[in-house]
Amino acid sequence: MRLDLLAALSGVLISLQTRANGELSHLLNNGLEAALVSFGSGLIIILIITPFNSHIKEGIANLKYAVVRKEIAKWKLLAGALGGSFVAIQTQVVPLIGVAIYSVASIAGQTAMSLIVDRIGLTGGGKKPISVRRISAAALTVLAVLVSVLDRINANDVSKLAVIGGCVAGALVGFRSALNGEINEHSQQSFTTSLLNFISGTAFLLTLMVVGILIGKVHLTALPTGPWWIYTGGVLGVVYIAFISTIVQHLGVLTFTLFSVGGQLLSSLIIDLVSPTNGVNVSAYLVTGIVMTYLGVIAGGVSSSRVQKPKRL
Questions:
Q1: Which of 23, 49, 185, 289 counts the most CB atoms within 10 A of its CB?
Q2: pTM for this entry
Q3: Dmax over Cα atoms in the chain, in whole Å?
Q4: Averaged over 68-85, what is the pLDDT?
């Protein structure tokens, strides 16, 4: 399958995960616990897979070799902590503004960060120039956020902060995507990269949870019995990280972001129409913002001329 189609599918996965984690957070009334459940379940899934997958073990050996030879800095292996932060923000924000507006806001942050990490060359695929076309695509995507929330400008401060939080979450995931691309270049196995992400991400969230409990700011809540789909965030995350760690080093973070935007926004719009978060409505401004984001994809000139076949999972 072409990498551009896989990038679009990854966008669909992230919007489904966003809805699942947001609903779990709403039912628990505890965003941090919801994030830990999501990341923790993903870790359990990949730990079950690991003993039966020789490729994951091979990837671990490759990473150890790369660290010993100082081909990759140790701190970059903690990319999963950024993923944990992303999910923690996601679970707090989605119940307030819905999947679609959150998606547009996070895409703006991710697109802006993508320009920076592509220019620095953090993906492992080399530095990529910041052309006028790429800047235009990123600017149009950011402008789409403003249009999407025009009818919420006079909303309460909580909603405004939630939109800002969505932008911050997007920036975090853009940086994480870049680090995962470099990790995957050395591991040569995308599920190894996923394993590493879930270990560090779960450890980060568990630390936050323990600290929160000790200082009396966080209280554990009994997990709800359903619906079943609120617990799919972990497995969706496993597949998503495996996708992006393979794709991003070939497409670059910005190009990957622009392709994934289509799948993410279309599916998030459908989710908010079919199964909306309480109090969330799909407005003409939001639809206009989504159309503008698609134009950003076109403006990005996402060429598939240099797309390669994905590495084996």
A1: 289
A2: 0.77
A3: 55
A4: 89
